[in-house]
Design a protein that fits this description.
Helix content is 41%, strand content 23%. The N and C termini lie far apart (39 Å). The chain is α/β, with parallel strands linked by helices. It has helices spanning 3-17, 22-29, 33-45, 63-72, 76-87, 102-113, 126-131, 156-163, 188-199, 238-246, and strands at residues 19-21, 50-52, 55-57, 95-98, 120-123, 138-141, 145-147, 152-154, 167-172, 176-178, 182-185, 201-207, 219-222, 229-232, 250-253. It has two domains: 3-61, Winged helix-like DNA-binding domain superfamily/Winged helix DNA-binding domain (Arc Repressor Mutant, subunit A), CATH 1.10.10; 76-253, 3-Layer(aba) Sandwich (Rossmann fold), CATH 3.40.50. The relative contact order is 0.11.
C-alpha cells in the first residue's frame, strides 16, 4: 500500500471517529508503528490532523478536548481494566456519580456496552455526558463553571446541586494520594465538588491507576475513612495498600 493510499484511509477513519491510535492503525493497515507515525507527521504538516500521545485527532476540537483526550491516553490500558471492574459493582436501578476524570470516562464507555438498562448517572463532565447520549440511562449534568483543562463543571452552583441529591455509588478519580493527606486534586474548587460527591453517596469508589500513589496534589477531597472501595492496578505501593486496608477500604487490583 502506497503512502497516499494509507493516509487517505487514516483520514477516513479519523473523520468517522474523531481520533485514532497508532497501534490500531498499524494493525489495520499492516505497517509498522514507525511508518504510521511518519504518515501522521505528514498529515499534521498539511494541517488535516493534530498528533497527540499515541495517536491523532481532528484539528477542529477545542483545546479543552485536546487536554482531556491526552489524559485519556495516559495509562490507557490500566484505566480500561479499572473501568471494567468498576462496572461490576453497578446494578440495574442504581443512581451513580461519575466525576470528571479520565478513568470515569472509560466507565461511561463500559456502561454503554453493559447489559444495564435502568440507571441514573450524575456527572460534572460534559465530555462524559456526551458519550452517554443515546443510551437508556437518565443523565443529570451538573451546572457550574467549565474548567477548560478538564471539561469539568465546578463552583458553588455545582456544589449546591450535589447537596440536593443522594446516590447509591460515586466513582471518583484522584490526582494524588498520601497516607497523611488522603486523596487529592490540584484545584481547590474541584476538590470542593468532589468532597460534596463523597457526602452525597452511600458507597464511594476511588478509581485510579497506581501512578497516583505517594504523589501529592494541592487539595484533599477525601480521607480513607470516607472511601469504601479503591479500584486500581497491580502496581499500587504495598505500604499504601496495607494502610488503606487497615482503614477499612476494600482494595481491588486489576
Amino acid at each position: 500500500m502506497f503512502a497516499q493510499e494509507r493516509q487517505e484511509k487514516i483520514l477516513k477513519m479519523l473523520k468517522n471517529r474523531g481520533s485514532v491510535k497508532v497501534s490500531e492503525l498499524s494493525k489495520k493497515l499492516g505497517v509498522s508503528p514507525v511508518t504510521i507515525r511518519k504518515d501522521l507527521e505528514s498529515l499534521e504538516a498539511k494541517g488535516v490532523l493534530v498528533r497527540i500521545h499515541g495517536g491523532a485527532m481532528l484539528p477542529n476540537h477545542s483545546k479543552a478536548e485536546w487536554d482531556f483526550m491526552k489524559k485519556l491516553h495516559q495509562k490507557e490500558k490500566e484505566k480500561k481494566e479499572i473501568a471494567k471492574k468498576a462496572v461490576e459493582y453497578i446494578e440495574d436501578g442504581d443512581t451513580i456519580i461519575l466525576d470528571s476524570s479520565s478513568t470515569t470516562y472509560y466507565i461511561a464507555l463500559e456502561l454503554r456496552k453493559s447489559p444495564i438498562r435502568i440507571l441514573t448517572i450524575v456527572t460534572n463532565n460534559i465530555f462524559i455526558a456526551e458519550k452517554l447520549i443515546g443510551t437508556s440511562f437518565e443523565i443529570l449534568v451538573l451546572g457550574g463553571i467549565i474548567r477548560e483543562n478538564s471539561l469539568s463543571l465546578v463552583g458553588s452552583w455545582t456544589s449546591k446541586l450535589i447537596q440536593e441529591i443522594n446516590v447509591d455509588k460515586a466513582f471518583l478519580g484522584t490526582t494524588g494520594f498520601k497516607k497523611e493527606k488522603g486523596f487529592m486534586v490540584p484545584n481547590i474548587i474541584e476538590a470542593e465538588v468532589k468532597a460534596e460527591m463523597v457526602k452525597a453517596s452511600s458507597k464511594v469508589f476511588i478509581v485510579t491507576d497506581s501512578s497516583k500513589f505517594s504523589r501529592a496534589a494541592f487539595s484533599t477531597f477525601a480521607l480513607p475513612e470516607d472511601v469504601d472501595y479503591l479500584i486500581t492496578d497491580q502496581n499500587i505501593p504495598k505500604d499504601c495498600e496495607e494502610f488503606l486496608e487497615e482503614n477499612n477500604v476494600i482494595v481491588e487490583k486489576v
